[in-house]
Amino acid sequence: MAAVPVASVIIPARNAAGTLGATLNALAAQDCEHEFEVIVVDDGSDDATPAVASGSDPAVRLLREHGVGPGPARNAGAAVAAGEILAFTDADCVPTSGWLRSGIEALGGADLVQGAVDADPNTPPGPFDRSVWVTRELGLYECASLFVHRAIFDEIGGFEDWLGARVGKPLAEDAWFGWRARRRGAKTAFSPQALVHHAVFRRGALGFIGERVRLYYFPAIARKMPELRRTLFFGRVFLSSRSASFDLALAGALAAAALGSPPLLLAMLPWLWLAARDAGRWRSRAPLALIAGAGADLVGFAALVAGSVRARSLLL
Fold this sequence. Notes:
Blueprint: E1 7-13, H1 17-28, E2 36-43, H2 49-54, E3 61-65, H3 70-80, E4 85-88, E5 93-95, H4 99-106, E6 112-119, E7 146-149, H5 150-156, H6 173-183, E8 188-198, H7 205-210, H8 218-224, H9 228-231, H10 241-259, H11 269-280, H12 286-311
Parallel strand pairs: 1-2, 1-4, 2-3, 6-8
Antiparallel strand pairs: 4-7, 5-8, 6-7
Helix pairs in contact: 8-12, 10-11, 10-12, 11-12
């Protein structure tokens, strides 16, 4: 008779044939004394994702959904999971060997644990590439590395795709899950040892700039989870220190033009310093990175203004 698993690792996957194999291989090599199961939820892939899952370790369990989104897909996996601990990662992540063991250990003193996320060390990212970094608990509760007791998960009802984002993939269902748990008194912790490496996806300057359109949704996120104004956002009303400096630069430039007062252009100095610093690390690509960064800041500003009006929640 098979042992009942202590933990269930749940992975939503959609068109992830290129990365899922590495995820499953890393899970098969975990340094963990506890019994665990792996559940892959294929969410309507039209590539070889199901075949990759089925052709891996025979202990991997494959579920099929039809484009429900990552939150509902995780819920589907949790519904059939046998473990009292639910561990979440994504199909574009490679858990380090001690990931699961460290997450389980951290849950010994907490109800919900955020694990660390770093970019794939074998693929250094360029200035416009996409990856994920989580170095401390900021309140977003990214499911690239997240652990929770099953009782807490069931109590709050799992993930809720509340935002209904129409640009790009769904977002903020994981942050909302974490804050619902915290509002019910759940104790949270961060585990740097529960580390996964996230794939690096190549993209150009236009893709980098275009993604800032998704900042349209962040004022609604701030309204839904005002706690993030304390844990994540800069000065409670700005997305980041860079967005605050860009807003100041834009206000100074407009005021200088309207009033014919060149000294007001000094308001641009903090943003120019940050922009030059961020672009300078790319050396030969620094000029393009500087231009693309300015374009991204402008698109992000417009998206945040529009989102603030729509959500009636100021975030700039």
